[in-house]
Amino acid sequence: MAELMQMPSVLLFLTLAVYGLAQIIRSRTGHILCNPVLISTVVLIAYLKLFGIAYETYHEAAQFIDFWLKPAVVVLAVPLYQNWQKIRSQWMPILVSQLAGSVTGIITGMYFAKWLGAEREVVLSLASKSVTNPIAIEITESIGGLPPITAATVIIAGLVGQLAGYKMLKSGTVTMPSSIGMSLGTASHAMGIAVSFERSRRMAAYASLGLVFNGILTAVLMPLLLPILNI
């Protein structure tokens, strides 16, 4: 039975089935905690623990999903292209806001961890928490952080943005779709784009822009800021 439960085909089917079921639950309830990523993560972790399945075994089965996620990222360029003229006319506020967002994302995570008494390696691991995972891991390795901690904080940042980011922005003074999209993409990377897609293509275009700019700027600024921040 245990061997059946950890077969690649079973793990792959389970991943897709749990996520699909989670989407149905969210569409019917609309509750903020009925997030497909959150539900899928909790259920799959419980499944792996229950049957004693190593993460490496699950990762091997899930590589098929990972493979198709890479070309799927190209889809994000579609709304970006459709709104390119509007984006190009706003290059100055976009650049300034992205610089502010990138620096804020770097500083907040690091200083909060330092204030709580975390070790330096842990503090460095939180520098790229708002960057999409592949770039975040590379940044962490280059500055001496711990990639597993970075991966976990990237997921947490994405979940927080996906669960509450849109409502927090709408409840304040931020009302423009472009501003909301940029904020979600900058703070919550791909998950911010996902929640933006649910609202409009224009918002998703700016969220995609936020993800790209934040990744590039964080990678460039991190080595320059690290000596100044005295971490």
Features:
2 domains, single chain, mainly alpha, globular, 231 residues
What does the model show?
- The chain has 231 residues and is mainly α.
- The protein folds into 2 domains: 2-74, no CATH class; 83-229, no CATH class.
- Helices cover 81% and strands 0% of the residues.
- The protein is built from 12 helices and no strands.
- The termini are far apart.
- The model has no long low-confidence stretch (mean pLDDT 83).
- The chain crosses the membrane at residues 6-25, 37-55, 93-113, 149-166, 178-197, 203-226.
H/I helix tally: 12
Tell how many strands the DSSP assignment holds.
0
Broad structural category = mainly alpha
Give the biggest sheet.
none
Helix content: over 70%
| Domain unit count | 2
Q: What is the helix/strand order?
A: HHHHHHHHHHHH
Uncertain segments of ≥5 residues (pLDDT<50)? none
What would the average pLDDT be, to the nearest integer?
83
Compute the separation of the termini in Å. Answer: 50 Å
* Gyration radius over CA: 19 Å
Membrane topology: Multi-pass membrane protein
Pfam family, one: LrgB
Protein name: LrgB family protein
Organism: Neisseria animalis
